[in-house]
Amino acid sequence: MSSLIAQILDHCRSGGSDFYSIKSGRVNGLVARSLPASDFDSINNPDTLFNLENLTKDSVGTTAGPVVIAGRNYFLKRYNNRNIKHRIKNSLRLAKPFKVLAASVKFREAGVFVPEVIAALEKRKALLVESSYLLTEMLHEIHTAANQIENIVKNLHEEAFIQSTCTSLAKIHSEGIVHGDPKMTNLLISAKGNSFETGFLDLDGAILSENPVPDSLRIKELARVISSWLKTCRDLRLPHDKLDVLVKKYAESYLELAGVDLFGNKLLDRTEYLVKRVRKR
Residue 132: what are its φ and ψ, rounded to 5°? Predict the structure, then answer.
């Protein structure tokens, strides 16, 4: 665990934070003070909250979906430790929900929207982490760049989207935050008149540092955004700029907002590599 993550979690456990620590049976973790007291008992046994018919993901490593607690809607993600080998290995590491909680605190401090973390929990058996849980607010109207890209293109709002996305990337990078996978399905957008505001979903791959993000990682983040945009446009048969033109547009916007010039062969090559690679948008 990095010292920065440890500091954030220590603050979350302190009496003056927006969270408090819980321990009930085999479950322990951090819970937001915004969670009504009437809902506490439900999160002591988080596995019972899942509706198997309404899961958005059910893989060997992860189970996720919307849940209802006392009539209120949330989103629950369970990280499964598949066997004794994984339990031993992951018991020596900080459970993923706590890393995501720390990341969400930093994103919000940077002025960038991410879903509110309601609880970060882990369940242990014989001192080993059996599974861990991330409970977040349920976004009733989720507008990701992936499901809004057609409207953005048809309404000629691409420049506004580029500026909004580069604004959010510039904010987090200056604060030492790397998202890790800023593809179209992980970018939340909301219209603000003729402009947009961009937030982020899925902080599992976030990296936190006390220093500004190095250029090499900034290039990877920007290239991921550009390549995902291009691949989504191509899949939907939408008009789009050529790769080099689009890279220049993003680099110029990022330079204006972050004061860091990323334009060059490294950004072009990385973007081209990601476009050619077979990967989820």
Answer: -135, 160
Q: Please name which of 23, 8, 15, 11 lies closest in space to residue 122, comparing C-alpha atoms.
A: 23
pTM of the complete model: 0.92
Rg (CA), the chain: 20
Write out the E strands in the chain.
19-24, 27-32, 57-58, 62-69, 72-80, 117-125, 128-137, 177-178, 187-192, 195-200, 207-208
Given a contact cutoff of 8 angstroms between Cβ atoms, the answer to whether 33 and 109 are in contact is no
Residues in the chain, total: 281
pLDDT per position as a tens digit, 199-214: 999 999 999 999 999 9
Name the residue among 110, 92, 80, 135 with its Cα closest to residue 8: 110
Which CATH number among 3.30.200, 3.10.450, 1.10.10, 3.40.50 corresponds to the domain 3-137?
3.30.200
To which residue do tokens 């900080």 refer? Answer: 94
